[in-house]
Amino acid sequence: MQNFKAWFKCSNGCDVTYSLDEIVYECEKCGSLLEVQHDLDALAGRTPEEWKQLFSNRLSKLKKPFRSGIWDKKEWVLPEVEDENIITLQEGRTPLLQPDRFAGELGLEDLHVKLCGNSHSGSFKDLGMTVLVSMVNQMRADGINIPAVACASTGDTSAAPAAYCAAAGIQSIVILPRGKISVAQLIQPISNNAITLALDTDFDGCMRIVSRLCREENIYLANSMNSLRIEGQKTISYELAQEFDWEPIDNIIIPGGNLGNVSALGKGFRELREVGLIDWKPRIICAQAQQANPLYKSYQNDFESFEPVKAKKTQASAIQIGDPVSINKAIDVLKEFNGIVEQASEDELANAAARADQAGLFSCPHTGVALAVLTKLTGNKTIQPRQRTVVISTANGLKFTDFKVDYHRGNLEDIKSRHLNEPIECPDDYETVKNKLLTELGQR
Questions:
Q1: How do beta strands 220-221 and 389-393 pair?
Q2: Does 236 fall in a domain?
Q3: 160 and 126 Cβ atoms separated by less than 8 Å
Q4: Which residues form the domain of 400?
Q5: What's 336's domain CATH number?
Q6: Which residue in 108, 244, 321, 342 is deepest, having the highest Cβ count within 10 Å?
Q7: Model confidence over 325-360: pLDDT tens digits?
Q8: Is the Cβ–Cβ distance between 172 and 197 less than 8 Å?
């Protein structure tokens, strides 16, 4: 049996490596983020067809851990963790929806939406958190003292470590900007017994606090600057390639905040290419909210420079980030994958989400950013009608019911609700109800 291995290395090319059970997030030489390096020669010891067959066979497995869409690719993710220490809540294997009606409105023939929010905690964050918490569980089993796992969050990130740590019996800590996330997002970590702190600051301020706590108190960091998160999130690439029977994808649009997902997508496709499972590259398109758009501004000058911004309030709260930690890795991926960065205003993202909802989706505001960018790039012919295009939906719309309710009441600031659909109030009278309905149906 092949001996598959992985380790941390500097993402900036320094000749330093670390074991995956070391509590380290940045290169000691240059301060760049780390990334997980796999023994690609060992992976290449199986032919591409053998890997494809193995992955296909595991789709029908019901035994832990292979029923997970992450752990059925265990050799490519975290090969050395013991099966009994894996903490999985059946993440991954999320639906790949083909919204034909919405695609037809845009003039597209091959549009797909990857519903990564159809997961245990309601967002794609589960993909990375199963890997991170499983590694912590392995380290604790090996006698390493880790009292808790902590993260800063604008909402979705907090739910995932809270759930996975609760399943593992590990204390979680969540630090949030007070009053800036939805009630549905806040109640998740509280329900899963996380120590939850609400600070009078924004996400970047929370990130500064949690980073210091983790450095000084031996608490394990769960934000995406921890590259174990990326190992789970990169399986979106594996899953998409497999779902399309390893045939090319032209465009992938993904919302971008802290930018870990952009780097994860690129890493996944890069590894598939290096081991020979695919020979193509998708174009990766990062969608940013105009209110929090530092990557978009850098893209405007061909990535010659990057300046953090003070993120302004946006309905896409999970990507309301002005100083993304994965900026350098994301830029590298966008350069490698012929990338594009586009932005969406509050009006554009809200109406794009509502328009898609009327065609059968139920999109979170962050997915609304991606859908607005899809609409723009389709309109200016950057995306051609016959190109295979995938939008990554990052969270479940049910976590953002306040956003939906306020949209249909016309109460969202700076947003004109073009697809407003309010309930029609009627008395308890059949003729009145009938007349109202027939009027709405255009028969009166």
A1: unpaired
A2: yes
A3: yes
A4: 96-121+229-409
A5: 3.40.50.1100
A6: 321
A7: 899 999 999 999 999 999 999 999 999 999 999 999
A8: no
- Rounded to an integer, what distance in angstroms lies between the CA atom of residue 413 and that of residue 53? 52
Calpha distance 349→347 (Å, rounded): 6
> Which element (helix H / strand E) includes 52?
helix 48-58
Asked if the structure places residue 241 within a domain, the reply is yes
Rounded CA separation 133/170 (Å): 9
Which tens digits make up the pLDDT trace of 233-289? 999 999 999 999 999 999 999 999 989 999 999 999 999 999 999 999 999 999 999
Please report whether residue 78 resides in a domain. Answer: no
Distance between CA atoms of residues 374 and 370, nearest Å? 6
Separation CA 11–CA 327 (nearest Å):
12
Q: Do the beta carbons of residue 104 and residue 378 sit within 8 Å?
A: no
Q: Cite the beta strand spans of 103-202 per DSSP E.
A: 111-115, 149-152, 172-177, 195-199
* 307 CB neighbour count, 10 Å cutoff: 10
Q: Which two tokens stand for residue 171?
A: 């204390």
Q: Give 3-state DSSP helix, strand, coil % of the chain, rounded to 5.
A: 45, 15, 45
Domain count, the chain: 1
What token pair was written down for 385? Answer: 């009608």
How many Å apart are CA 337 and CA 214, to the nearest integer?
34
Report the first-to-last Cα separation within the chain, whole angstroms. Answer: 73
Q: How far apart are CA 328 and CA 238, in angstroms?
A: 23
- The model's pTM is 0.94
Q: What are phi and psi of 402, to 5 degrees?
A: -60, -40
Residue 408: closest CA among 342, 369, 353: 353
Domain membership flag for residue 351: yes
pLDDT tens digits, one per residue of 62-88: 788 889 999 999 999 999 999 999 999
Bridge-based pairing state of the strands 251-255 and 111-115 = unpaired
Q: Take residue 107 and report the two structure tokens written for it.
A: 């003039």
